[in-house]
Design a protein that fits this description.
Strand order of the largest sheet: 1-2
Radius of gyration: 23 Å
Number of helices: 19
Order of helices and strands: HHHHHHHEEHHHHHHHEEHHHHH
Helix content: 55-70%
Length: about 575
């Protein structure tokens, strides 16, 4: 256990240090200042603007920014759908995979466009190499850059004074891709290849096992997709087993490196926010709130998984930690990682919008599954997806200062700008969209035969699988519990709608909030101003996030993982 704890501590320190320097770097990139990559990247950046017909000096209001985002999204969605539908006629298909059928192609295109990467298919059995690289990995870059661009737009809205524009979407996405995502992805790919991650265009290899059976070993350009899927908090695996597959995640080092990748940019954006507004403490306050909830989730899942399953103990299964085994609940986990590493991975991937898994979430203890769901249901803001985590947390921050203002009887202020009724309406609308989708579709799916027929595990666990599915797609996470046969017309359609609601309906009030705040003047701080760069505000922010989440989702969680936990331990007491 000690080596695992040391590894987790080193990873946490690496994330903190990396986030600080990457956050400072990103602030320079999005403000158009010269960086160490400018001599190489700046000519490419200018060429991109020339090809797109974009004037990088011309900025957009929040409505123009929103329209540009939707235009790029619609075109990229259509592009991906077409590639999947005709992949059998395109090159780099050495295994002769057929075209993806329309319903699955649409669900997959929506999934990758929205940064969800929900997969109703096994990648190594469905997608050609060209589809993996061109249709899917392309979106891993674009959807991540879109989320970061939206966060930067909100930062501009909060930091500028008496302005009318919040940036240029095309410029922000271009700079994010060229200066941030691509360089880190290239370096990360080399790291994975050095550790045994595969990267080739070979056809699948058939080999004879020691027992004389034939096994087909899937291959392909895996490492390059692996890095951007985690760096961009996308999560779509090249293989059906995702990061539990040794070709995607060869060893303990790459497991920790993957955790580092999907937490790096979300925490770095908190630093970017603090630098941008001229007060690093503001970013530290937000980042600390994110870290507190994340560490709490890691602790609960690690405790539950290391404690083991009482039902297995009752029949004599040895789950004690020893020199020869990690102990705990090893169902659905790789012996390479064990309960502690899997716990950190599970908490990190559900508290961001990554959705990668190095073990089966369906095999988590009930309370572990509950915590994983809560991480998604809170809006994945602790630290959340790239961009989406920060703009979600800043939305909660505005709600928190409103509550603080009510407590002291003054007009609430954030970063020197008065938070008025319109701003609270925008923030509240954004926060309510997620439970509307998650709870609404869950209720529908447990009532109609098309929904319940897909459940292989009736009872509270089956309900948990449905609740997890709609939490995952609405939160643009993409991870899933097994046991839900979701590749049919009902689930493909409802899940696609939930993905759209969680990604794009959510950002409309967020950008409207940015458009409202950017017009305001900064008012001088007074004795009644509630400071938002102190530990007190961090505590208030954590409280608001948890209370809103608890009040919204507690009844549904009680019916699913809560009831399953009680049944499990009631059965143990009966023995």
């Amino acid at each position: 256990m000690l080596p695992q704890l040391i590894g987790l501590t080193v990873t946490a320190l690496a994330i903190a240090v990396g986030a600080y320097f990457v956050g400072i770097y990103m602030e320079a990139v999005f403000n158009g200042r010269r960086t160490f990559l400018s001599p190489v990247v700046r000519p490419v950046e200018r060429a991109c603007y020339w090809l797109m017909g974009v004037n990088e000096e011309q900025e957009q209001g929040w409505k123009g920014y929103l329209v540009a985002m939707f235009l790029v999204t619609a075109l990229s969605l259509l592009f991906t759908y077409v590639i999947l539908r005709v992949q059998d006629k395109l090159p780099l298909n050495p295994n002769g995979f057929a075209a993806v059928e329309p319903g699955l192609a649409w669900n997959t295109a929506v999934s990758f466009t929205t940064n969800t990467n929900w997969q109703n298919y096994g990648g190594e059995q469905t997608m050609s190499y060209l589809s993996q690289m061109l249709a899917l990995a392309f979106h891993n870059f674009l959807s991540a850059a879109t989320g970061i661009a939206l966060a930067i737009a909100l930062i501009r809205g909060l930091s500028r004074r008496s302005a009318s524009t919040i940036g240029n979407f095309y410029v922000d996405v271009t700079r994010c891709t060229l200066y941030i995502l691509l360089p880190i992805a290239i370096v990360g790919t080399l790291v994975f290849v050095s550790q045994g991650g595969i990267q080739n265009f070979n056809g699948y290899t058939a080999v004879k096992t020691l027992q004389g059976a034939t096994q087909v070993i899937a291959q392909g350009p895996v490492s390059s997709q692996e890095v951007i899927k985690d760096l961009g908090t996308n999560g779509g695996g090249f293989f059906n087993a995702n990061s539990a597959h040794p070709f995607e995640n060869p060893n303990g080092f790459t497991n920790q490196f993957t955790i580092f990748l999907f937490l790096l940019i979300p925490f770095a954006l908190a630093v970017t926010f603090g630098r941008w507004v001229g007060n690093l403490k503001q970013g530290v306050a937000v980042g600390t709130a994110m870290a507190i909830v994340l560490l709490g989730c890691v602790g609960v899942i690690a405790w539950q998984e290391q404690s083991g399953n009482p039902a297995l103990s009752a029949i004599g299964v040895d789950q004690a930690r020893s020199a020869t085994q990690s102990g705990g609940n090893m169902e659905g986990k790789s012996v390479r990682f064990g309960p502690l590493d899997t716990a950190m991975f599970a908490a990190g991937t559900t508290n961001t919008s990554t959705g990668s898994v190095d073990g089966s979430h369906d095999s988590l203890m009930p309370l572990s599954g509950l915590v994983a769901m809560v991480g998604i249901q809170l809006g994945e803001i602790t630290p959340g997806g790239v961009g989406s985590g920060l703009y979600g947390m800043l939305t909660f921050a505005i709600l928190a200062v409103f509550i603080a203002g009510l407590m002291v009887g003054r007009t609430p202020e954030y970063l020197g700008k008065k938070v008025e009724s319109r701003d609270i309406k925008y923030a509240s609308l954004a926060i309510l969209i997620l439970p509307f989708s998650i709870l609404g579709f869950t209720a529908l799916s447990v009532l109609v035969p098309a929904g319940t027929s897909a459940v292989a595990n009736p009872g509270p666990h089956g309900f948990s699988e449905i609740l997890y599915a709609f939490s995952s797609v609405t939160g643009n996470n993409g991870s899933a519990m097994a046991g839900l046969a979701a590749n049919n017309i009902y689930w493909n359609v409802t899940l696609s709608i939930a993905m759209w609601l969680g990604r794009f309906l959510f950002v409309i009030p967020v950008l409207a909030l940015a458009g409202s705040m950017v017009k305001k003047k900064v008012v001088p701080a007074s004795a009644g101003t509630f400071p938002t760069d102190t530990p007190l505000f961090t505590g208030l922010l954590v409280g608001v996030v948890l209370i809103v989440g608890a009040l919204t989702f507690f009844p549904a969680l009680a019916l699913g993982p809560g009831l399953e936990h009680l049944q499990l331990f009631a059965g143990q007491l009966a023995h």
